[in-house]
Design brief:
Immunoglobulin-like
Length: about 375
């Protein structure tokens, strides 16, 4: 019995190091350095990628021991943009581009035989994203996984729960984020343009726990500008129209400045009962084009009517921004028209008669 206890104790002692040993985790994350249009806000990233920089120390000089790399694909995308050549302050930074290429080369080498986990794109506060839009957290994870696999040229996993830190995004900016997210997810139901998908993924950077108060305000405003520009590329053109008959087909214009065609319907809602306007369904708008369509309008009474025009997807959901169509009907009653026409004819005949009399007098 004594020998058995000694043997069990010895085995447990031998097994203890392997049981307690944990694979070191290296987190390659940072706050965003580029604006939503792809330009660099500052040049801090170049210095950080140097061997003695914050991000450089994470990949240069590592030993060959086993590690787990937890990586934000948004950061890697920024480094790739820098490696391809970039300008800052109106000047090309060749040294920064070379630094980015060196760092990427080293990163791909050190992760080659280690586990790699892709964080949700932009490294957002996962708890906050889950409370605002659980489906969007899944989108950020899948988008990041695809991006990181392309960048590292190998398979990576995408698992929630690896995030660290808490975002202190205030309520006004949370409201702005939610509005931008709904606008982009709506546009993605009528357009397959990668531009929409890319900006939708980058919205997550506003919830990165590493952002300062100034950073959160800056990127929230920057995201709003970018989303507004995107929404204006696929919409109904606003305008003013003068209507002079009870029934008319109103020419309105749809614009699609994306690189893919879209199939849309148009919702037309008059703000009063002076006019009746019909919706238009299933219109294909070619890429990079403007298309005019005719909308039936029935005038009930003269006056002005504001019509709210907005695109709809195949499910009948309103998508994108609202455009305003100002319609003014100036219709004259038929009896008044006949009376006015008759009076004009009589005046014309009277003028002819006077002219004839003057000619006869002049001859005499």
């Amino acid at each position: 019995m004594k020998k058995l206890l000694i043997a069990l104790f010895t085995l447990s002692f031998i097994a203890m190091p392997s049981a307690q040993a944990e694979t070191p985790v290296i987190r390659i994350v940072d706050k965003a350095h580029t604006n939503f249009d792809g330009t660099f806000r500052n040049n801090e990233l170049a210095a950080s990628l140097l061997p003695n920089g914050k991000l450089g120390k994470l990949v240069f000089g590592l030993t060959s021991s086993k590690r787990t790399f937890v990586i934000d694909a948004a950061l890697i995308s920024e480094v790739e943009n820098m490696a391809d050549g970039y300008t800052f302050g109106g000047k090309e930074d060749a040294a920064g581009s070379q630094t980015a290429r060196n760092w990427l080369f080293r990163l791909r080498n050190v992760v080659a035989y280690n586990d790699v986990v892709a964080l949700p794109f932009g490294n957002p506060d996962e708890k906050l994203v889950k409370s605002l839009a659980p489906s969007e957290l899944k989108f950020y994870s899948l988008y990041a996984q695809a991006k990181l696999q392309t960048s590292l040229k190998r398979s990576v996993s995408a698992q929630n729960g690896w995030g660290s830190g808490t975002s202190r995004l205030s309520y006004p900016f949370i409201k702005t984020y939610s509005k931008n997210r709904r606008l982009l997810t709506g546009l993605s139901t009528i357009s397959t343009s990668s531009e929409i998908t890319d900006v939708r993924a980058r919205l997550a950077v506003v919830m990165n726990p590493l952002l300062t108060r100034e950073d959160r305000a800056y990127f929230s405003y920057n995201a709003h500008i970018a989303v507004d520009k995107l929404a204006n590329r696929l919409k109904v053109i606003p305008g003013r129209y003068q209507i002079t008959s009870k029934t008319v087909k109103l020419p309105i214009t749809l614009v699609n400045n994306f690189d893919t065609a879209s199939v849309v319907s148009v919702s037309l809602i008059p703000m009063n009962s002076r006019m009746q306007v019909e919706n238009i369904n299933n219109i294909t708008v070619a890429a990079k084009s403007r298309q005019q369509i005719l909308v039936p309008v029935d005038v009930i009474a003269p006056g002005s009517t504001l019509v709210l025009a907005q695109l709809m997807n195949s499910k009948g959901q309103l998508v994108g921004q609202v455009s305003k169509l100002n319609l003014t009907a100036t219709i004259i009653d038929s009896r008044v028209a006949w009376f006015t026409t008759g009076a004009a004819v009589l005046l014309f005949l009277g003028a002819v008669t006077q002219s004839v009399r003057r000619v006869r007098r002049s001859r005499k």
